[in-house]
Amino acid sequence: MTIRHCALIVALLLFSRSGGMAQTPGTPPRSPVASAVRPVVVAIEFVGNASITPAELLYNMESKPTSNSSLQRFFDAYAKLMKANRRFAPRYRVMLEQLVDSLRGNIRYYNSARAASDTAVILRVYQNRGFHDARVTWGIRTDSGNTKVAIRYLIDEGKRYAIQGVGWLGMNLDTLPSEVRQQLLDRQFAKDGEPFAVELVNAERDRAVRILRDHGFPFALGQGVTVITRRDTAAGRFTDSLLLQVYCGRRYRFGTTSHRSDSSHDGTPVDRSLVLGQVEYKPGDWYSDRALEQTRANLNALGVFDRVRIDRVTHGDSSDLVDITFATQLRPQWNTEGAVEVAAEKRVQGWRILLGLSGSLAKTNWLGRAERFSLGGRVAWRPAEGGRLEWEGNLGGHIPSFGSSRIGLSASVSYSDLVEAKWVDRNDVEGVLRDRRVRVVGEAVYRFPVYTFFSNAQFFLNFQYNQYSGVGGYISDATVNKTGAGLVNYDCAFEVLEPDRLEQLYGAIENAMRSSIYRLQVLQGDDINLLVGRDTVARQQFNDLKRTYIGGVTLLHDTRNNFFQPNSGDFLNTRLELGLTGAFNGGFGKLEFDYRYHTPSGFRSSWAFRGHAGWIVQFGEFPLTPVNSRFTAGGANSIRGWGVRDLLVTAPAQLASFLDSIVGECAVPILREIDQESRRLQGGLGVIELSAEYRSWLFDLPTSSTLNQQLNQLQFMGYLDIGNAYFRDYTTDSSLVNLGSIVENLAGSVGMGLGYSTPFGPIRVGFGYKFYDPVDRIGPTRWFWNRPLTLGDVSWHLAIGHAF
After folding, report:
1. DSSP string computed for 65-113
2. Bridge partners for 742 per DSSP
3. What's 600-657 look like in SS3?
4. How far is CA 706 from CA 701, 716, 733, 792, 798, in A?
5. N or C end: fewer C-beta atoms under 10 angstroms in the chain?
C-alpha cells in the first residue's frame, strides 16, 4: 500500500467522524457483532400504490431506509477498483471496506412499533387525496443473519372520491355584497367533479378568506373543513360534499392613515407627504389587504426603510372605521464600500494579472425625498501590459417616486478606459489596445400592482460613445507574431522566404483582420487610415459611428424566495432594445429572454434551471452593433467548460481572391488561429444557453462548535451547460445562419464545484469539462470519447454568488 493510500484513509476517517443518524435513539453499533442485534433497514417497498409515488409516501413517514452519503457512494466505487487490483494486499482491502462502511450516511435501524405506526401515516396520505376506503398492511423480509430488513407495505387504494357540492359555515352568503358572493361561488380549486384533495380544499378556503379581506372584512379567518362522504356502491358513485368554515366578522372602511418613525439613529426624516403619497387607498374606501400590501410594496421600493410595519386600530361597535399606522425604521443613510482587487483575467493574449482598488459612496434621503446619489470608481494596474493603468468611474442619482407612487426615475453617467492587450508593432513601437467608453443612461421604472405576473417595467434611453485606440498597432503585432509562428507550424517557410511573398502574406492577414475579424474596432477606432478602400460610407461617417443611441424596455418577473441563495420560485427578464448609429442610417434590434427556475430537492438541496436566448437583427445602410451590446457565452456564469467570452460560432475571415495560391494556403490556418483567439473581442448576434444545476449542502452538523458551523456552510454544485454565441456578422457567416448549424454548434460541458456560503451567495470554485466542443475541434473529435483527455478541455472558475 502506498503512502498516498494511507493518507487518503486517514483523511477520510477524520472526515467521517460525524457518524450516522439512527432511526431510534441510541449509539450506532461499532462492530459487526453489535450490528446483528439491531437490523438495519435497507429498503422500504410499496405494492399497490398506483396513484401516489413512493417518494411522496416516504416523505411523510417516520421510517426511512438507510441511505449512503455522496462520499460513501464515491469511495465505494473506488474500493471496488482497488479490490479488483491483484497487487492490493488483502489486509488493506479489509481496511478499505471498513473505511467505506464508516462513511455510511443516515443509518436507519429497524423499529417494529414505528413501522406499524407508519400504516396510519400512509392511510392519512391516501385519505387526504380522496381514497377514503384505502387499506394498508405490512410485513418484513430479513437476510439469513437478521442484520438487514426490508419493510414492505401492501396497499389497497380503493376508489377515489370526487367533490360534489360546497357549503359555507360561519357566514351567510345572502348578507354579503353581490360581487363578493359571486367570487365565492365561482370556485377556482374545489370544483365539482374534480378528485378530492385536502390541499385543493384548503386552497379554496384560503381563497375565500383573501376575497373577504380584500372587500372590507379585515378579520376574516379560515377555521376548518367538514367532509361529508357518500358511497353509492351500486351506482358506482363515491363523492365528498364540503362545508368550509370561515369567520367573516364585521365589514370596515379605511379611516385615518398616519406614519410613525421607529428609527433609533439620527438622520434626515423622510418627508411625511412622500410616505403618505404611497398609500393605495382613500379614507372611506372598503378595507382591503391588497391595498395595504401594495402600499407596503411602494414604501419598500423607496429604498430607505429597513422595516415597514402596519398597525390597525378599530373603535369598537360605534364605528365601522379602521385606522392605519405605518411604522417604519430608516436604513443608515450613508453607505461606503471599498475593495482590493487581485485577479487573473483572460484576455486575447492569455491570462493576465490585475491589481486594483475599487470603491463607492452613496447617500440616501439627502433632501428627505428618498432620493439616492452614488459615486463609484475603480483603478487597476496591469503588470503584463507595461504597468499601464485602467480605470472606471460612475455617477448616478435615483428618485424612487416621481409624480406617482409606482413611477421612479434614475440617471447615470459613466466612463471607462480599459486595457485589452499590449502590442509591439513591426517598427518596435510599443502600445496597448484600449477600449474607452462613455455612457449616459436615463431610466423610468413603473412598478406593477402586487399579485400581477410582472413586478416592474424599466424604460431606458442610453447614449454611448465607444472609441478604441491602438488598433493598428495591435493588428500589426498580431500579424507578425502569428505569421512567424505559422511559418513554422504549417511548414510553408521555404515557400515564402522571398521578401515580396512575405510582405504579401503580411498584407493578406492584416487586411483580413482590419476588414473582418476586428472590423468593429476599426470602425470605432481612432485611425481612419485602417479602413480598406471600399469603405466609402465608413470614411464619410467615421466619427458618427462611435456614437450609438439605444432605447428599450425590460420586463421583470421574480418570485424567488431569496435573491442571493434561492431554492424555490422563478425569475424572468424580457428585454427589447432598438439601437441607432450616430448618423441614423443603420442600427440594430435586440430581443432577449432570461428565465430561471428553482425547486427544492430533499433536505438542504435544490435544483436550478436556466434558459437564456437572444437575437439581434441589424438593419439600414450601415448596420452596426457595438461589442458591449452583443451577446457573449462562456465563463463562470455561463457555459462553464470555457473561459469568459471564449465561445463564438463564426466563419473564418475571407482572403482576397487575387492572392498568390501559395500565400493563400499559408494564410488560411494562420487566420483560423487568429479567429479562435479573438472571439472575446467580437461578440455575437445570437445566443442560446441552457443550464441545469444541483445544489446541496454537504453537512448538517450540530452547531455546538465553530468548526461545525463553518462546515455547515459548504455547498456542492454539479452542473450541465449547453449553448453558444453565434455570428460575427450575417455576411461573413451567411452559410451558418440556419437551424441545423445552430443546433450542431451547441457546445456542451459538465462540471462540479464547491462553495462556501456567505450573505451574498457562495464563494465558489469549480471546473467545467468540454464533452462536446464544436468551436475548437472539427469532425468526430468534437465528442469527448473520440479524443484523449487533456487539461485543455477543462476550465476552472472562481466566483462569488451562484451562476444564476
Report:
1. ---B-HHHHHHHHHHHHHHH-TTS-HHHHHHHHHHHHHTB-S--B--HH
2. none
3. ECCCCEEEEEEEEEEEEEEEECCCCCCHHHCECECCCCCCCCCCCCCECECCCCCCCC
4. 11, 20, 58, 39, 25
5. N
Q: What are the grid coordinates assigned to 74, written together?
A: 464515491
Residues 6+ apart with CB under 8 A from 427: none
Q: Report strand pairing: 372-382 vs 350-364.
A: antiparallel
Residues 57 and 165 sit within 8 Å (Cβ to Cβ): no
- The answer to whether 374 and 335 have CB atoms below 8 angstroms apart is no
Residue 54, phi-psi category: left (phi > 0), alpha (psi -120 to 50), beta (remainder): alpha
Question: Which residue, among 481, 535, 479, has the nearest Cα to 506 in the 3D structure?
Answer: 479
Q: Residue ranges of the domains in the chain?
A: 3-156, 162-247, 253-330, 448-800
Triad 570, 571, 576: Cα angle to 5°: 150
Question: How is residue 340 written as a grid cell?
Answer: 482590493
Q: Which CATH fold topology does 3-156 show?
A: Ubiquitin-like (UB roll) (3.10.20)
Model confidence pLDDT, tens digit, residues 216-271: 999 999 998 999 999 888 888 899 999 999 999 999 999 999 999 887 767 788 99
CA 508/CA 407 separation, integer angstroms: 56
Residues written for the chain: 804
C-beta of residue 582 within 8 angstroms of C-beta of residue 545: yes
Report pLDDT digits (tens) over 318-358. 889 999 999 999 988 899 988 887 776 666 656 678 788 99
CA gyration radius, the chain: 34
Task: Work out the widest C-alpha separation in the chain, in whole angstroms.
Answer: 107
Q: What is the pLDDT of residues 486-539, one digit of tens each?
A: 555 555 654 545 777 777 888 888 888 888 888 889 989 988 988 877 788 888
**For residues 572 and 555, what is the distance between their CA atoms, to the nearest angstrom?**
8
Exposed / middle / buried, residue 642 (Cβ in 10 Å: 0-12, 13-18, 19+): buried
- Please name the residue that has the C-alpha cell 426603510: 305
Write down the pLDDT at residue 491: 55
Return the C-alpha torsion angle 73, 78, 80, 81, nearest 10: 150
Q: Beta strand 456-469 with 407-424: parallel, antiparallel or unpaired?
A: unpaired
* Sheet containing 40-47: order of strands: 40-47, 148-156, 135-142
* Over residues 744-752, mean pLDDT: 93
H helix intervals, 422-492:
471-489
- Mean pLDDT computed over every residue of the chain: 85
Instruction: Give the confidence band of 72 by pLDDT, cuts at 50, 70, 90.
Output: low
DSSP 177: -
Contact 777, 793 (CB under 8 A): no
Q: In this structure, which topology does domain 162-247 adopt according to CATH?
A: Ubiquitin-like (UB roll) (3.10.20)
Closest Cα to residue 714, out of 11, 15, 6?
15
Amino acid letter at 264? S
CB distance 324 to 310 below 8 Å: yes
- Cell triple for 598: 428553482
Same fold, 162-247 and 448-800: no
pTM exceeds 0.70 = yes
User: What letter does residue 39 receive in the DSSP assignment?
Assistant: -
Angle of helix 70-84 versus helix 90-102 axis, rounded to 10 = 170
CA distance 762 to 697: 11
CA distance linking residue 652 with residue 778, whole number of Å? 14
Inter-CA distances, 96 with 12, 66, 311, Å: 11, 20, 64
User: Quick one: what percent of the chain has pLDDT higher than 90?
Assistant: 48
Residue-wise pLDDT tens digits, 434-476: 999 999 999 999 999 888 899 999 999 999 999 999 998 888 8
**120 bridge partner residues:** none
Fold (CATH) for 448-800: Porin (2.40.160)
One-letter amino acid for residue 251 of the chain:
R
C-alpha 492: how far from its chain's center? 49
Mean pLDDT of 744-770: 91
